[in-house]
Predict the 3D structure of the following.
Amino acid sequence: MFDTNATVNNISNWANLEVKLPADLAKSLEAYEALRYVETGHEPVIDPTKLKASNVAVEVDKVAGELSVNAQREEAKRRLLAALGGKILREAGAAVPDLVEQLTPEFNTQAAKFKAAVAKLPYELTSEAIVASANPEVLAALGDAKQAGAYLRAVDQWVAGLTQLPAFAGVDVDAQPVLRILAPSTYKSLVNLLTAHNQPGKDELVVQVGAAYLAAARAGVEFRIADPREAAQLREKLEASRPAPKDVRYLDLTR
C-alpha cells in the first residue's frame, strides 16, 4: 500500500542530491504543491442572534448550501491529488535510470574519497584510537570519511525510498540493506557486510562513518548504485552461490 502524499514529499526532495528532474516530473510536482494549498471552503458563519421563527428554514438552507459546496470542493481536491500523485509516482519510477546516471560521477568521486580516507584510519576505529594516533593526517582522514560517508548514505537512502514507487512494487527493501550501493562478488562477502551492518554495540565513530561502508572499503568491495530490483537480483545471485553445508556437499544426489 503506497502512501502517495509521503512518497511525493520524498520525490520533491530528490533535487537535494543535485540531480535535474525530468521536466514533466518537475511540472507535476509544482502542480501538486499548488493543489495542496487550494482552499476548499470555510466554516459557515452562524449568528444565532439573527435567527427568528420566520427565517430559520431559510438559514438552514443557507448553511446546508455552504456545507455542500465545501464537501464537494474537498472531494474534488482529494480526487485531483490522488490522480496527480499517481502520475508523479509513475513519472518518478520512469526517471530512475536517468537519475542513477546523473548521480554516478559524483558517487564514484565520493566513494573513492571514502576508500582513500579509510585506508588512513586505524583498523579499530574508536575515539581513543584517533586520539592515540596523535596524527593530524588521521584526523583529516576521519573528517573525509565522515563527509563522503554522509553522501553515500544519502544515495543509499534514496535507493531505499524507491521501493515506495509502483515501478518497484513487491521488491523487499529489507532483504538487501547492504546491496543498494555495494556490490560484493561472493556470498561470504555479503555475509561479512551484513555482519558489519547488524553488529550491535558499534563504536559511535563506526556508526558515523557507516559500518557496512567501512567493511566494504577495507575488503575491496565495489561501490556502485543499484535500483531496488537490481539489488534484489544480486541478492538472489549471491544466495544461489552459497556453499552447501559440509554434510550435504558431498552426497551423491543422483541416487
